[in-house]
Amino acid sequence: MVESLEGIIDDVSVQMKKAIGHLEVEISKIRAGKATPQIVDGIFVDYYGNPTALNQVANVMVPDARTISIQPWEKKMLGAIEKAIIAANIGLNPQNDGNFIRLFLPPLTEERRKELVKRVLGEGEHAKIAVRSIRRECIEQVKKLQKDGLSEDIAKDGETRIQATTDKFIALVDQHCKDKEKEIMTV
């Protein structure tokens, strides 16, 4: 019984780390006025009938702070890449010069910065919901173990440890959101 409880508590951390990892990926895609290759990470290009990640068909570079340069490995992919970028609706218009596709990031206005902060906080809230959902499921498993014969004191101790882990990960979500908000609001 106690081994099962320890397994549940270990599982809590593993699942919550995955939720934090997902949050990090999502907020890295939100641009903060600086060009990064992660902005185009979620874009898939039609490559001979198969949806393929953009970085699998082209070289994605950041020549300066406001430009993303995309050089396809096959010149005939330029049109497909351009269509995929437009369809992805990332708020950037591709400029095709026949060899490269360039994405120019305009300077962020105060209003746009606030919108981006709202998106970051929304992603943070999704992560918190995921963490709380994991907590709820694991506490239900502990209560099931208690019905199967685990002592009440050990079950309460397990629930307390699960709650402490949850609090730690919620604080981590808040810290990630605060850091990203600071990055976005810095002019």
Please outline the major beta sheet: 4 strands, antiparallel
Name the average pLDDT: 89
- Taking pLDDT < 50 over at least 5 consecutive residues as the criterion, the unreliable ranges are none
Structural class: alpha+beta
Proportion of helical residues: 55-70%
Instruction: Based on Cα principal axes, name the global outline.
Output: elongated
How many helical stretches?
5
Strand content: 5-15%
Descriptive account of the structure:
The chain has 187 residues and is of the alpha+beta class. The protein has helices spanning 2-28, 54-57, 78-88, 110-147, 152-185, and strands spanning 44-47, 50-53, 58-64, 67-72, 94-96, 101-104. It has a 4-stranded antiparallel sheet. α4 (110-147) runs antiparallel to α5 (152-185). The longest helix has 38 residues, at 110-147. The model has no long low-confidence stretch (mean pLDDT 89).
Notable traits:
alpha+beta; 5 helices
Topology diagram in text:
Elements: H1 2-28, E1 44-47, E2 50-53, H2 54-57, E3 58-64, E4 67-72, H3 78-88, E5 94-96, E6 101-104, H4 110-147, H5 152-185
Antiparallel strand pairs: 1-2, 3-4, 4-6, 5-6
Summarize the structure.
By secondary structure, the chain is an alpha+beta fold. It is built from five helices and six strands.
